[in-house]
Specification:
heterodimer; A: mainly alpha
Chain lengths: 473, 201
């Protein structure tokens, strides 16, 4: 049962949907617990599929290897955190409905399908499954005009991106005669890498991928979606789909199109530098923390691309490490916004973080850790993530690129440090105590402390990432 | 030029004409009807390619179901065409330039050199008893069963999303419960009040 986890999560999502129909309103929390149980069950099933080798099934359309297992497990953990953080938020705003959890689980199924895709068709369908769930989740708060607008923008741009990706895939199919990723890679060794049709297809594929990733110049949707969506959904959008983006790039560019690395390296280089520069510089001008984190995510995606564009196993594993660390940081930062919000009030302006230290020193400290890690200050996991990707591009002699990345990261440190300054050196305008359920406080503390607490095991995690990508190409 | 080629060029001309009318005609209902014509011509082209199942599916599904629904929507919605056309001239130069550039690039890449008859030979005549439907079904339920199932899941998500985003339980709706209406006891409905009759004067 290699596809057991996917089938299980999907079946449970359907079951929750039906059970919810017969539940009285006060038992609504049962859906939440069932969703959490689903994730634990799926994790157990995924452990069973772990063999260490790369096994194909469904006529070579589904692959179970180290990478798929790692991405799926990370997806479950992130989703558990997302559900815990969003529970109170949804309840206070009267949108605690089972559809949120069902769509969250189905979006996760899409991510899982992408993680185990070994065929262009499954890769694309997984992407659509995930995107469609995201569009619906963003528009979930029906009465909110900004949320509807964000969902609409995301939907239209996402559809264009899917079209581009599909068009590029069809070109590659025309040139190689196959949609199976391994077969495409084999066929490419016989064709000149400068073949016009291959490059043409590659450009479209990269443009589509960059849209989904939110890399400059295809980043326009990111700030609006992060800002417009309810924070509980932003939490989801900012974490789980990032794993899917890694799966997309790893399967498509690394697994299938590595013989064209010479071409996509240059394209990704432009995307990466622009993303880091524009993301970091525009983030400085934001006074809404959700928008600021959106621009920060654009710059992080630029760093993530650095590892990929080195086109070396070292770089790929560094990028995988980066995306995992980024997902945890993003989860913590948006979790903190949820913690400070309450019904009728969204703590989404930077001013709302003023004097957090006076209100709750512990939470101010957690936010401090999160911001330092995002800025890449040692000794946090964020520092190691940046270090690894920059090392990987230095190894392939792209020194100017590495210098530019470091300089731009220093510029980026400004707006992270500004949050810290607001928390510790400004007076609080808002003095109400922070209320949250115990499980959320506990997990949020764990989430932020993880960024420092992981340090003794950084080597192990890097080894896990290295193993995950070893049977990719 | 044999008869088959003549038919092909006929359908192709109609298709291109109808497709360009869809995007240029002002009235949305007319645009939808031109789209129907485009689907019919495309179905004709499929038939020439011996893909009779796809041709019939195109007519049945798109013309028969999707476009009728689409026409309903277009007729019901009050679309302000003047507002939709706002800024058309403003975006025309840059949009047109991008479009021309794209067409030129595609012409450079997708020419006969790579996709001509030499590279993509005629698949040849199929036997008279060859069934497209059976072959498609066989592939869809064996080799492509996994993507097929995922596509079904995507449709399910679309249904969930549509319902979750539009279903609202109105508090003031006059909802009837037929079973309660039928099982009612007449004595609960009619109250017999005993009153003294009016005094005679």
């Amino acid at each position: 049962m290699l596809a057991g986890p996917e089938i299980f999560v999907f079946s449970m999502a359907c079951a929750i949907l039906v059970i919810d129909l017969f539940l009285p309103a006060r038992w609504r929390a049962l859906c939440y617990w069932l969703a959490q149980l689903t994730l634990i069950g799926a994790a157990l099933l995924t452990f069973k599929t772990m063999t260490g080798a790369s096994v194909l099934t469904f006529n070579h359309m589904f692959v179970a290897d180290n990478l798929s297992v790692l991405l799926k497990l990370a997806g479950y953990v992130l989703t558990v955190f997302v559900f815990v953080y969003s529970r109170d938020y949804l309840q206070e705003r009267g949108i605690f409905r089972s559809e949120y959890f069902v769509l969250g689980l189905l979006g996760l199924v899409g991510t899982m399908v992408m993680a185990s895709a070994s065929h262009f068709l499954t890769l694309y369908l997984g992407l659509e499954l995930m995107s469609l769930s995201l569009y619906a989740m963003i528009a979930f708060q029906r009465d909110s005009v900004v949320a509807t607008e964000a969902a609409m923008k995301y939907f239209v741009l996402g559809a264009i991106a899917s079209g581009m990706l599909l068009y590029g895939m069809s070109m590659l199919y025309g040139a190689t005669g196959s949609l199976e990723i391994a077969a495409v890679a084999r066929a490419l060794t016989k064709i000149s890498p400068n073949d016009v049709i291959l490059i043409f297809g590659l450009v479209f594929v990269i443009a589509g991928t960059a849209f989904k990733l939110g890399a400059v110049p295809f980043h326009m949707w990111v700030p609006d979606v992060y800002h417009g969506a309810p924070t509980a959904v932003t939490l989801y959008v900012g974490s789980v789909p990032k794993l899917a983006s890694f799966a997309l790039i790893a399967r498509l560019l690394v697994g299938g199109l590595e013989p064209l690395a010479g071409s996509w390296q240059t394209m990704l280089m432009i995307l990466a530098v622009l993303s880091i520069a524009i993301g970091n510089i525009i983030a400085i001008a934001q006074d809404n923390i959700k928008r600021m984190l959106a621009y920060s995510s654009i710059s992080h995606m630029g760093f993530f691309l650095l590892g990929i564009l080195s086109a070396s196993p070292n770089g790929y594993s560094a990028s995988l490490f980066y995306i995992l660390v980024y997902a945890v940081m993003s989860l913590g930062a948006f979790g903190m916004i949820i913690l400070l919000s309450r019904s009728g009030f969204e703590a989404e302006r930077l001013e709302d973080f003023k004097g957090l230290n006076q209100r709750s020193p512990w939470h101010a400290f957690l936010m401090l850790l999160l911001m330092l890690s995002m800025a890449g200050v040692p000794p946090t996991a964020g520092f190691y993530a940046k270090l690894l990707v920059i090392q990987s591009i230095m190894k392939v002699n792209l020194i100017p690129l590495a210098v530019a990345a470091v300089l731009l990261a220093v510029i980026g440190a400004y707006y992270y440090l500004r949050v810290i300054k607001l928390m510790y050196f400004d007076d609080a305008t808002e003095r109400s105590p922070i209320q949250a359920r115990w499980d959320m406080r506990l997990l949020l503390s764990f989430n932020a402390l993880l960024l420092v607490g992981i340090l003794p095991w950084v080597g192990t995690l890097m080894e896990v990432c290295r193993r995950a990508i070893q049977n990719l190409a | 030029m044999d008869f088959k080629q003549l038919v092909f060029y006929f359908f192709a001309t109609v298709l291109v004409f109808a497709a360009s009318m869809v995007i240029t005609v002002r009235n949305p209902v007319k645009a939808a009807l031109f789209l129907v014509l485009a689907f019919f011509s495309a179905a004709g082209l499929w038939l020439l390619l011996q893909a009779e199942f796809l041709a019939i599916a195109l007519v049945l599904v798109y013309v028969g179901a999707v476009m009728v629904l689409f026409l309903f929507v277009v007729m019901m919605l009050d679309i302000n065409i003047a507002r939709m056309r706002e800024g058309f001239g403003e975006y025309l130069p840059i949009g047109g330039a991008v479009a021309i550039l794209l067409v030129l690039e595609m012409a450079i890449v997708l020419n006969a050199e790579r996709f001509g008859l030499k590279q993509m030979p005629d698949p040849g005549q199929l036997a008279a008893d060859y069934s497209n439907t059976r072959e498609l079904g066989r592939l869809l339920y064996t080799v492509y069963v996994y993507p097929f199932e995922i596509a079904a899941v995507i449709l399910l998500v679309a249904i969930i999303a549509a319902i979750a985003l539009t279903l609202r339980r109105r508090k003031d709706s006059k909802y009837q419960d037929p079973s309660r209406q039928i099982n009612i006891d007449p004595r609960q409905r009619v109250r017999v009040v005993k009153m003294r009759s009016e005094k005679k004067i």
